């Protein structure tokens, strides 16, 4: 079987639960070979959890090094500034025929120091190239500039993000709407679907990054976008279920 090549444009997570680490382990779990263009480094400092953007020219050279690799899909994660986002857009425009999974990491759980306002406009430019957009509730609110308090609000936000250019959208509702379930909402312009899984005790598994990467992997493996989303939600559930407090996952062989 051909070993498909999948790219992650994402940052590192110093605790290794999310970011490029989650991307690479997810690709490997689906039988693919992952490449990474690193957008940033992170660390816990006296000021808290901080994001340090990759030097713009270094990031440019990373992407130029990969421009001729025959990727089957690209997953985009944390873009720490406008310059990195612009270079990512240039790269994606050169790969406009392959699936692009855009996880708009505008708000790190630990901090709000990513420049949200400036990045929104750059992210909107990526929307027309996105096979699917995968924001969490906070990111969906920032992108649409609308508060999401109910499932109906989430539906309205998904339709707005689709209108802005993304071919499909899945908003990760997390624990907002239920004490016993994690509820997400998928919309592709025609189909609207709620996806549910029982809540599990949290650990260091980067659920959002893993979810987006699993969607990329399943699309590469031939699944439709809607089936890839459902399969990715199941994959994240099993990953959390089978991992320890550090996010170390014991995958079935």
TrEMBL record:
GO cellular component terms?
cytosol
The family database entries (NCBIfam families) matched by this protein are listed as: PRK12413.1
What EC class is this? transferase
Q: What high-level taxonomic lineage is stated for the organism?
A: Bacteria, Bacillati, Bacillota, Bacilli, Lactobacillales
Query: What PANTHER family does the record tag this protein with?
Result: PHOSPHOMETHYLPYRIMIDINE KINASE, PYRIDOXINE KINASE
Reactions catalysed according to its record: pyridoxal + ATP = pyridoxal 5'-phosphate + ADP + H(+)
Any keyword Nucleotidyltransferase?
A: no
UniProt KW Calcium keyword: no
Q: Which Gene3D superfamilies match?
A: 3.40.1190.20
**InterPro entries in the cross-refs:** HMP/HMP-P_kinase_dom, PM/HMP-P_kinase-1, Ribokinase-like
Its Enzyme Commission number(s) read 2.7.1.35
Q: Which Pfam families match?
A: Phos_pyr_kin (PF08543)
The protein depicted here goes by the name pyridoxal kinase
UniProt lists the family membership as follows: Belongs to the ThiD family.
Alphabetized GO MF terms: ATP binding; hydroxymethylpyrimidine kinase activity; metal ion binding; phosphomethylpyrimidine kinase activity; pyridoxal kinase activity
Name any Gene Ontology BP term: thiamine biosynthetic process
Keywords for the protein's UniProt record, in alphabetical order = ATP-binding, Kinase, Magnesium, Metal-binding, Nucleotide-binding, Transferase
Q: Which domain of life is it from?
A: Bacteria
Where in this chain does the record put each Pyridoxamine kinase/Phosphomethylpyrimidine kinase domain?
13-247
